[in-house]
Structure formats: structure tokens, C-alpha cells
Amino acid sequence: MSISTKELHAALKTYFGFTKFKGLQEQVIKSILSKKNTFAIMPTGGGKSLCYQLPALMQDGTAIVVSPLIALMKNQVDAIRGISSEEGIAHVLNSSLNKSEIKQVKSDIESGITKLLYVAPESLSKAENIAFLKEQTVSFMAVDEAHCISEWGHDFRPEYRNLKHIITQIGDNIPIIGLTATATPKVQEDILKNLGITDAKTFKASFNRPNLYYEILPKTAQVDNDIIRFVKQNEGKSGIIYCLSRKRVEELSQILQVNQVKAVPYHAGLDAKTRSRHQDMFLMEDVDVVVATIAFGMGIDKPDVRFVIHHDIPKSIESYYQETGRAGRDGGEGHCLAYYAYKDIEKLEKFMSGKPVAEQEIGFALLQEVVALAETSMSRRKFILHYFGESFDSETGDGGDMDDNIRNPKPQSEAINQVILLLEVVSSTHEKYKSKDLVNVLTGQENALIKSHKTDEKPFFGKGKEKMPLYWMALIRQSLVAGFLRKDIETYGVLKITDEGLTFINQPSSFTMTEDHTYNLSDSNRRFSPSTSVADVNLMPMLKDLRKSNAKKLGVPPFVIFQDPSLEDMALKYPITIEELYNIHGVGEGKAKRYGNDFVELIKRYVDENEIDRMQDMVIKSTGSNSSLKLYIIQNIDRKLPLDDLSSAKGMNMSEFIRELEAIVFSGTKLNIDYWIDELFDEDQQEEIHDYFMDSESDDIEAAIEEFDGDYDDQELRLYRLKFISEVAN
């Protein structure tokens, strides 16, 4: 169908009321109208839907749109019906329809009224639907969210794999249009191959969203408080908070509600009616924040989402890009904040065990990219765009200063010699190692793989050991982005040297690098954001002095009364009543009543004398959402049940379970775990550890491990500390 630019613009105005196309829309539509196989890669918010809606309305017959999401289909059908007098211009064909509705859909298609038919791949594969569509005029087949076809995509759906076979059954010469908002070179290759359209005309829009600000912060035990403060500082703005588990979604939305934030949960465990209501509340601005699993957001077009927070780091960069892309679609402010702790990555790796090996390999490779994004100190925007096969200059590019690494750069150092060594080692080992093993070769760490290749016998083995493994990992990432190395996807991430890399070896030039972030426990109070609240530096020493003098009177170590994090929280929130003290980190009702009076009196006096304006809305209230777990622990410890049995019954490892015990004991509740301690230690050992804690100024476990020269491990000392605090403090 040949059509002039004038006619195309007229149709755009007639059907959608727009006077001009956005980005690559016009080129894509012209390709579809000329009956060519087409592949469009456009970022979220780039106007993908219009690319198949307009040509469908302009042509004879019905365009079939394959989409994985019923909610998205419904939204689009409603939108198309809104621009036409014909109700039947767009239909959905899925399992939710009854017999008479299906009959109506088929009748409208036969009579030529229906221009767009939205189907899920499962519905399309039904024999009766294939037989019916075979007899109809199909203008083209659009496969939306085409990345679902690839195992390397962030949302792989096995039923998408069969689409090509189904389309061929419906008709031989039906043009196919694949559309996706996220596709790495590997995923693109997969889509074209699996849809059988390797000849497709490909259109790729820039993935850069210059108005988005990317920030990644260390995730600590206080992450809920951090999130609440952020939301409070952005009061009245719309935002989405993503969590990995339904349970966390429910807990966090409750905590937000308790702290006067208008928030609702959204996850697949809620019934369809509730989900739809919560979604509408968000769209209609009855609530400001949706706390959701990734089930939320696909196809949600709310242009003024001002922040997207990731409570848990996503499983792939595609997911991260897709989810952050829901912010600032109107071109206005969009703050993308993610909290990162490596233990979350380990948790995701654990989930993958039991899956087929190939799937695990892919999952691990995708996760490592996420780790790289979180830990890198280079421009996060540059890193993301490189991942999607796009180059970006952070000095001149649009939005170049819109990330935390550029705003707060780490010192750089010259690394020309190290890059040469790295590239030479890749070449000398015949390009057979992944990043991790390559770092081991450079730092002289043997493992089974290295030994099997006899690499440990080579002269270059351990040549880079004057630098830490973290340094080499950072250099590998920055060399990948510089184009000196590439990851071979077929072999799940083996490093290969590029032509640019070979040129650099022969003609080296200056190469500056920054060392990566290390998110460890010492980062727990470090923030990259300048706006973050910090504890009152004048009040803090006064609280410590009071704790010391009260500890002397009672004949106990200072930490027994309140731990340092609790004092820091007091110096931040200024509690002036015992009730307010309950909301301080690590202080429960029991502890507040026993030790709190002197502290709230001191704080009240300090607040009055210094005329401090307390931000009461910043006092984080707790929901008590863990009360059922607390009750379970107390009851079963009273029954003297083994602690390892209790932890595995709750699906926790021992370290996580001890953390729950600590939350109970440190808040002032007594737990009698003598039966378990007696299993772990003899009398002399118990006496030795007891005397240590009695004389110590601090309850720091690292210091205790050092004192005992590694005789006891982290878990053993944490458990004895629980017994000690239960007996001495509670």
C-alpha cells in the first residue's frame, strides 16, 4: 500500500488528534503499510502502540496483536473504541469471554468492522481460533513485548516460542511486526530468528531517557525508614516502589500507610477486582504511591510518575530499565532510586537452583550485569546504554550529569599499564575465561578450571596481584564499555578481545579508571544523596555520656542499655516521650520503660534549649507486621525446640533467623536460649565469653572474633550475645 506523507499525517490527525509523529513512528508505520516484515525497538514511553494501531485502522482486514497482558489489551481496546463510532473496531479474544461474546467478536471480524484483534498467545494457539482466522483477511500480525520470545529477555514466556508456527498456519504471507521496549543485541537476534523474520526492516530508537536521574544506595537494615523519608520529602508526587516478594509489598505498603503516606499494594496474589481498584486509585491520584511486584506497570501509562524506587535490585538490566522507564514519561522529573546489597543477589541465585543448567547460566549472566551496574563508578547512563548496544558520551550527551556517579565522582587513576596487562592475559589464555576466573589468573588464585588449563604454570599467572580483585573486576567492566573486550553470549560471558583492544595493545593511550563502590556494612550510614538527614552531632556525645554513667550505676556494659544505632536514631528523631521511644531502632516497649526515662528527659531539655523544630512526620512508626513471627519464636523457644529447626521451618538461613532473635532481644524482650547455648559451648567457654562481654565497651562481633583469635565464629558469638543481653539487660 503506497501512501503519501500527507495522507499519513491526515490519518494521524483524524484518528488520534496528533499533528506530528514521535521519533521513529512515521518510518515504522510506512514500513508496515508497505507489507514488509518490521522490527521496532523503542524504549518505554516511545509510542510503540501507535506504530501498529494507525496502519491497522488504515488498511483492509484485521490486524492481530499478540500481547502477554490482559490488562494492557483491555486498556488499548478501550482507547481505540474511544476514537471510533464503531464499538467493534477493536476486540479482545481471550479466556475471559463467554460464548455469546466470542460469537460477537467473530461476527465483527467477518463483517470487516474489526481492525484490531488483541489476543494472548495461548488463545491464538487454539485450533478453533486458528481455523477461523485462516478464513479471514489478516492485514498483519503484531507481536508486542516481543522480548518474551527470548530466554535472554527479562520476561521469557515459553508460549511465545510457538508463534511463528501458528502464524504460518493462519496464512503464508502475513507480514509480521515485532515490537519491544527492551532488547540487547542477543535478544534482538533471538526475536528475529524465532519469529522467522531475519529479513525484517529494523528500526531502533535511542534508549536514552535524559530526564531520568539514576541513583543506587547501599541497602541496610534501615531501608524502610530510608524509603519513608524519601517519600515524605517528595510528598504529593506519584511514585512506584518495586519489591520482589508479595509479603514485602504488603509489609511496606502497611508501614507507609501507618506513616500517613497514601499507598496501596499491588501483586498477583490480590484478586483481580482489588488489583484493578488499586490501579485506578493510582491513575486517578487517590493514592500517591503503589508498592508492587513486577506484576504492576506493564502497559500502565501514567505520564507523571516522579520516582521509581527498587527496594530489591531487579534480576536483569532489562527489568531495571523497563521499570525505571515508568518514571517521567512526560519529560518531567524522574528519580530512579535503587537499594543494593549483595546478599539480595545471593538470594536470587538461590532461587535459580533446581532450574535447568542452561537457564541457570543465563540467569547468572544477567545477574552479574546487574551487580556490575550497581557497583560501577562510571556513568550509570553510559553503562545502561552500552548494555543495549548504544554508545554515549557522558560529557556531551543529553542527560550526561543525571546520575549519582557523575554528580559525586570517585577519584580516578591512570591505568594504561593495567589495561595492557589485562588484554594480554585475555589473549595469552586463548580467550577462554569469564571475568571471575580472569581476575583469579591476574591475582594468582588457583581453582580447578585454571589448573585444568595449566594456566597456573604460565609466567603471567599472578602478575597483577599488587591490585585487589575488586580493582580488576572494575577494570574489566570499564574495558568492556570502552570496547576493548566483549562478552561472548553463546558461551555465557567468556571474554573476547576486540579489534579496538588489539589496537590498544599496539598503540596504547591514556586510560583513566575509577574504582568501584564496595557496598559493605561500613556503608550502612553512608548516603550518596545530599539531602539526607544525619544524627545531631551535639546531642550524640550527650546521649553516650548518659548511657555510660547509667551503665556504671547498674554495673553493666553501656551497650546493654542502648546500642549505638539506637542512640544515632534518637539523635535524628528527638523522641521526647516513652511512646515515641518505641519507634526508635532497636528499642521496644520493655527497653523503653526500663531505661528510657533519663534519655527522653535529656532529649526534651536539649530540644527546648536549642529551639529544635522536631519533624514529627519524620518519626517512622512501625506496623508490628512481624508480630506473628515474634510470637512463633517466643513460643517455640519456651518449648526448647532446636533453633536450626525453627529457622528452616520459616524458610530462613541461620543468619537471618539470628537477626530476628536480635530484633526481639535488643528491643527488651527476654529469650531463654540456654538449652541451645549449652549444646554449643562448655562451661569454661561460656564463662570466657561472658567475661569478655561484661568488660567490653562494645558488643561489636568483629571485635569479639578478633579478641578470641577466631576460636568462635560470627553465629556462635551472636547467639551468646543474645543470652548475655537477655540475662543482663532485659
- The separation of the N and C termini measures 82 Å
Q: Low-confidence runs (pLDDT<50, min 5 residues)?
A: 521-533
The proportion of strand residues reads: 5-15%
Strand order of the largest sheet: 3-4-2-5-6-1-7
The total of beta strands comes to 17
**Dominant shape:** globular
Q: Nearest-angstrom radius of gyration?
A: 30 Å
CATH class of the largest domain: Alpha Beta
Would you write up a description of this structure?
The longest helix is centred in the last third of the chain and has 21 residues, at 589-609. The chain has 34 helices and 17 strands. With 730 residues, it is an alpha/beta fold.
Topology:
Layout: H1 5-16, H2 25-33, E1 38-41, H3 48-58, E2 62-66, H4 70-81, E3 90-93, H5 99-110, E4 116-119, H6 121-124, H7 127-134, E5 138-143, H8 163-170, E6 176-180, H9 185-195, E7 201-204, E8 212-218, H10 223-233, E9 238-242, H11 246-258, E10 263-266, H12 272-283, E11 289-292, E12 305-310, H13 317-324, E13 334-340, H14 342-352, H15 357-375, H16 380-387, H17 404-407, E14 412-414, H18 416-428, H19 435-443, H20 448-452, H21 469-482, E15 485-488, E16 494-497, H22 499-506, E17 512-514, H23 539-554, H24 558-561, H25 564-573, H26 578-581, H27 589-609, H28 627-638, H29 643-649, H30 654-666, H31 674-680, H32 683-695, H33 701-707, H34 714-728
Parallel strand pairs: 1-6, 1-7, 2-4, 2-5, 3-4, 5-6, 8-13, 9-11, 9-12, 10-11, 12-13
Antiparallel strand pairs: 14-17, 15-16
